[in-house]
Structure formats: structure tokens, C-alpha cells
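The instructor's notes for this session suggest beginning with a concrete chain rather than abstract definitions. Hand out the sequence below and ask the class to guess, before any prediction is shown, which regions might be ordered.
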Amino acid sequence: MTMQAKEFITWKSIYETNIPKIDDQHKRLLVILNDLYRSFIQKDGADVMLDIAKKLISYTKYHFTAEETFLSKINYPKLQEQIDEHIGFKTKIDEFYINIEKVGMSVEILQFLQNWLKSHIKGKDVAYSQWIFENKIDFEKFI
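After discussion, reveal the predicted structure:
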């Protein structure tokens, strides 16, 4: 019987945008990151970790595209800042994937992913949510 590793990152109310579709996507990203962490802790093979890393990269890119499209539709004034952060993160995770292929997963990669997601969601994503609600934008018809 294998011991279950605790969650690496847990969903907290401070991450909520109060936009259900976005919050669901953020929760999914956290689930995949937790899967990657568990795989690392359990010392799964490189193929297993690479598969999970591919899922994280793929879902991250899907989420960023969906989020940017949504923010464009509502004319969010800081859309370019959001896009720029997304580009930087996508570049970094692509580099990490190559690194994982060459030398394997590391605690540093996991910590970067955790810190970036927490910081970005609490910062940029909650900020656009506040802007949406302050400006009484009927976001449901745009998402």
C-alpha cells in the first residue's frame, strides 16, 4: 500500500474570481500540479512525470487562450499585461519540459510552478475579476 502524499497546493477562497468557469479551470490546473507533485514524491518513472507535465502544459495553454479570449471580449484594459505574463509562463514551462526530459523533475521546478500559479491567480486574475464586478459587466454572456 502506497502512502498518499499531501496536496502540494490547495484551493483557497483567496484564489476565487467568482467567475465559475475560470475558477473551475484554475482548480483543474491545481489538480494537475498536485498530480505532478505526487508523481515526483512517489518517484514514478520519467515517462509518468513527462505525461503529467504534458497535461499541465496543454491545459495551461488551453486555459490561457480561453481567459485571454474572454478578457478581450469584455475589453479588459490590462489584457496586454495578462498576455505578457502568460507568454512568459508558457516559455518557462516549455523550458521545464525539456529540462525534465534531460535530467528529470526537480523540487525547484515544482516550487516555481506552485509560486507562479498562486501569485498570478491571487494577483492578476483576482484583479480582473474585481474590475469586472466593479464595472458591473455581465460576464456570463462573454464566457
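Then share the key points. The mean pLDDT is 94. The domain at 19-135 is CATH 1.20.120.50 (Four Helix Bundle (Hemerythrin (Met), subunit A)).
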